[in-house]
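Weekly sync, protein design subgroup
Attendees: M.S., D.O., the rotation student, P.L. (late)

Item 1: inverse folding check
M.S. brought a backbone from last month's batch and wanted to see whether the design step gives back something sensible before we order anything. D.O. pointed out we never logged the input encoding, so this time it goes straight into the notes. Structure tokens as presented (148 positions):
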């Protein structure tokens, strides 16, 4: 697999994005970043920052969203971790060739102009793992540039 560049973000499934944003910003001290609807994935995303670490709050757009299913089964909580990779297509091909179970055989559009693909939790010690390539929008700026 191409080298992992680092941890891209942690994602938390929430039912009420505004309420969750207030908790993470006002009570836990994270800085609020951009908010975006990612229709292809059926979610609204609020990016939060803890230093240089990004925390993604995810709200389902409807009952067919994978996040809606997660919330119905488990309730709010940690949904996935995301690893930054230089080439998502190459990473997917190499992981498939190595026999890992993938949710996405082809990368798809993610938030902030990224390409993403998911590794099934059964192939990653029970952790849903997202591979993330690129992204040139406001989420990639250093956390200190993000306005409250």
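Designed sequence read out in the meeting:
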């Amino acid at each position: 697999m191409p080298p992992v560049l680092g941890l891209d973000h942690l994602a938390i499934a929430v039912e009420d994005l505004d309420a969750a944003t207030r908790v993470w910003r006002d009570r836990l001290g994270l800085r609020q970043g951009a908010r975006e609807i990612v229709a292809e994935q059926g979610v609204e995303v609020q990016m939060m920052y803890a230093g240089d670490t990004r925390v993604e709050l995810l709200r389902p757009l409807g009952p067919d969203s994978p996040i809606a299913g997660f919330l119905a089964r488990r309730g709010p909580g940690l949904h996935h971790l995301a690893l930054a990779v230089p080439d998502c297509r190459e990473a997917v091909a190499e992981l498939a060739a190595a026999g890992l179970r993938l949710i996405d055989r082809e990368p798809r559009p993610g938030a902030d102009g990224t390409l993403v693909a998911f590794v099934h939790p059964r192939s990653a010690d029970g952790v849903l793992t997202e591979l993330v390539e690129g992204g040139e929008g406001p989420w990639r700026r250093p956390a200190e540039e993000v306005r409250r």
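Discussion: The chain has one domain: 6-136. The longest helix spans residues 17-27.
Action: P.L. to compare against the previous round before Friday.
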